[in-house]
Write a structure and sequence with these properties.
It is a single chain. By secondary structure, the protein is an alpha/beta fold. The chain is built from 27 helices and 9 strands. The strands form 2 sheets. Strands 3, 4, 5, 6, 7, 8 and 9 form a 7-stranded mixed β-sheet that branches. Helix 4 runs antiparallel to helix 12. GO terms for molecular function: secondary active sulfate transmembrane transporter activity.
Length: about 600
């Protein structure tokens, strides 16, 4: 059998490697799946079912060779908020709808759009999620009793303070043992999952030394069924669908970001290239199917994907094997999971939060003290103190506004003249002075995007240029205008119309492709006239000089152009030396506009 695509060149040796990698990833995924489910406000078995169903489908149908899918820490604040506000049944509906949205994103090839989310926004909400996860495990670490779950950070912290008198020293000891194992195991036994060692050690200590002293999975959620997950019907009424569409959009957005980030990491580690749209379709199908088995929303898991690659995975088969391995463990050993202390789960999630916090990138962006720092901190604080939806929306809006401001500041309009001392026929703004300028012909270099953000500044330039009452010709050098929108086009055309009304001829040089296409569609080129469009500034100068009022040139001593000597009726030697009383041009003369 000849394999192709992500299974290209597959062999028995590759299958053996995938079995090893899949089993190791499965061992890592078991405690994480239960921990993520508990932190999301649902029973631990639902996290295992998600690991099984979504893990198999994402590997089978996705666009990455090494991607491992399942429940992730990034989803915890969102899923917990949905469970608290709408309940578990509606969480399943939100996950189902989120899957449909992901499929549609992939079908309409929107995978590439995820790359346009600004990095400060991504780092900001990721760090905010990490803080939320970490703080949410403090109560379990301390063994606080009678804790009420709250949706918002402030209320949760207040609840912890109020319940501090009920802290359980046994829980702290169990959690500390697990935490120590998480820290030490990677250094001593790098190939052994620290979370598995931590759970086994802390559970054995709790069972043997002080039974019934700490809360366990069994005491809090009951026994985990040692069987296959059964099909779970969904109440897809119109009212429920409309109520859950906004949470579904948030799930789809975060799921797409996390899965494609994980796929990019996998590409870097494995030397492959993923198909982002196929990945979104695979993620979407997994999230459509998983709720029917009681599973929660899933996405690509960066840490498990990295573990998969490091342990020799060759193809998506390792991810499929990881799902079946977890299923086998659930069937054989599920009853023993009931003895796991909840305090053992807390340090695992705290470590997940620490690893996903992007602390180095966060510190670097804050230290830079740019507008990106504002977006980062704002998104982070809103994620922690409000909701992820609010944080992403506000972060994106502020990032766009600041970007528009920066782009508008790039637009400059400088008045220039030919540099007669240069043999290369260049123009320069530095030689423009009060005594070295042409009253009848002005040349302006326009640089930067001419769009709505800079349009008002360009309108101010229009007012300034219109004050030149002796002008006969204006040359606009637009080689460095890479982009023009309809607002910028409207202001450019308004300037041209105003100048033409005053009897001024406007020449445009070096018009680039996009502005030319837009002006063609709007009729702007017809207004300018093909005879006034030039590729080079020298050609435009020749056309402009033929339009001068020769009577005004007589006696003029500005000598702006090489032809001025003949037009003014003096010798070339006299024209080469402007009046010694010439004064430097003001900043406004040289740089007419700088946004």
């Amino acid at each position: 059998m000849k394999w192709s695509g992500r299974f290209s060149g597959y062999s028995k040796e590759a299958f053996r490697k995938d079995i090893v990698a899949g089993c190791i990833v499965g061992i890592v995924a078991i405690p994480l799946g239960m921990a993520f489910a508990i932190a999301s406000g649902v029973k631990p078995e639902y996290g295992l079912y998600t690991t099984i169903i979504a893990g198999i489908l994402i590997s089978l149908l996705g666009g990455s060779r090494f991607q491992i899918g399942g429940p992730t820490g990034a989803f915890i604040p969102i899923l917990l908020a949905i469970v608290m506000q709408y309940g578990y049944e509606n969480l399943l509906i939100a996950g189902f709808l989120g899957g449909i949205i992901l499929v549609l994103m992939g079908v309409f090839k929107l995978g590439a759009l995820i790359k346009f989310i600004p990095r400060p926004v991504t780092i900001g909400f990721t760090a905010g999620i990490a803080v939320t996860i970490f703080s949410g495990q403090i109560a379990s670490f301390l063994g606080l009793q009678n804790m009420e779950r709250h949706e918002y950070f402030y209320d949760s912290m207040k609840e912890i303070v109020l319940r501090l008198p009920s802290l359980n020293m046994y829980s702290i000891l169990v959690a500390s043992i697990c935490l120590a194992a998480l820290i030490v195991t990677p250094r001593v036994l790098p190939k052994v999952p620290g979370s598995l060692v931590g759970i086994i050690l802390s559970t054995l200590v709790a069972v043997w030394l002080f039974p019934d002293k700490v809360a366990t999975i069994g005491s809090a959620y009951g026994a985990i069924p040692a069987s296959l997950p059964t099909i779970h019907g969904l109440d897809l009424s119109w009212d429920r669908i409309t109520a859950m569409i906004q949470p579904a959009l948030v799930i789809a957005l975060l799921g797409s970001i996390e899965s494609l980030l994980s796929a990019v990491v996998a590409d870097g580690m494995g030397g492959t290239r993923h198909n982002s749209n196929r990945e979104l379709i695979g993620q979407g199908i997994a999230n459509i199917v998983t709720p029917f088995f009681g599973g929660i929303p899933a996405t690509g898991a960066i840490a498990r994907t990295a573990t998969n690659i490091k342990n020799g995975a060759v193809s998506p088969m390792s991810g499929i094997i990881h799902g079946f391995f977890v299923l086998l463990i659930v069937i054989l050993f599920a009853p023993y999971a009931s003895a796991i202390p909840l305090a053992s789960m807390a340090p695992i999630l705290m470590m997940v939060a620490w690893n996903m916090s992007e602390r180095k990138a966060f510190a670097a962006l804050v230290k830079a003290r740019t507008s990106d720092s504002i977006v980062l901190v704002l998104t982070f604080l809103l994620t922690v103190f409000t909701t992820l939806t609010t944080a992403v929306e506000v972060g994106l809006i502020v990032a766009v506004l600041l970007f528009i401001k920066r782009m508008s500041e790039m637009l400059t309009v400088r008045k220039v003249l030919p540099d007669l001392s240069s043999g290369k026929a260049k123009v320069s703004a530095d030689i423009v002075s009060a005594e070295h300028d042409c009253p009848q012909c002005s040349i302006f270099t326009v640089e930067g995007p001419l769009f709505f953000g800079a349009s008002q500044s360009f309108a101010a330039f229009s007012d300034w240029i219109e004050s030149g009452h002796q002008l006969k010709s204006v040359i606009l050098r637009m080689r460095n205008v890479p982009f023009m929108d309809t607002t910028g086009e409207a202001h450019l055309i308004d300037l041209i119309k105003r100048l033409q009304h005053l009897g001024v001829t406007v020449h445009v040089t070096s018009l680039r492709a996009q502005p030319r296409r837009l002006l063609t569609k709007t009729g702007g080129l017809q207004l300018i006239g093909e005879e006034h469009l030039f590729e080079h500034t020298g050609e435009a100068i020749n056309a402009a000089l033929s339009n001068l009022n020769k009577d005004h040139c007589l006696g003029c001593r500005h000598f702006a152009f090489r032809e001025c000597a003949e037009l003014c009726g003096v010798t070339p030697r006299e024209a080469a030396y402007p009046s010694p009383t010439a004064k430097p041009a003001s900043r406004m003369t040289r740089t007419v506009l700088k946004s």
